[in-house]
Amino acid sequence: MPRGREAEAIAFYADVLGLDPVEKPAPLRSRGGVWFEGGALRVHLGIEEPFAPARKAHPAFQVANLDAMIARLDRAGLSWRRDIDLPGLRRIYVDDPFGNRIELLEPHAE
């Protein structure tokens, strides 16, 4: 993520995706960035200079209800795009505030 945009990261990852921001360990705080947790998931956003968004490589987050997540994205005014569903998976992509691609997927019975 770019330096100084932690509030935008929290607005997206916490307020929209539902992850909890957690305090970084004291020795790492001066580096900037922000960390999140949700169940067994841990996401660490570090500062990269110069910053270039990850457009191809991406994390995939499993959600319990993809339709509910799409509704949250819509309410937040965020655009998302469908991709080809894979066997047993429905999925979409959304970009975080910095242009990093995020995949959201939900397992389903075929």
Automatic annotation (TrEMBL):
It holds the Pfam family Glyoxalase. The keyword RNA-binding does not apply. The keyword Lyase applies. SUPFAM superfamilies: Glyoxalase/Bleomycin resistance protein/Dihydroxybiphenyl dioxygenase. It comes from the Bacteria. Gene3D superfamilies: 2,3-Dihydroxybiphenyl 1,2-Dioxygenase, domain 1. InterPro entries: Glyas_Bleomycin-R_OHBP_Dase, Glyas_Fos-R_dOase_dom, VOC_core. Coiled coil: none annotated. Residues 1-107 form the VOC domain. One of its GO terms (molecular function) is lyase activity. Keywords: Lyase. This is Lactoylglutathione lyase-like lyase.
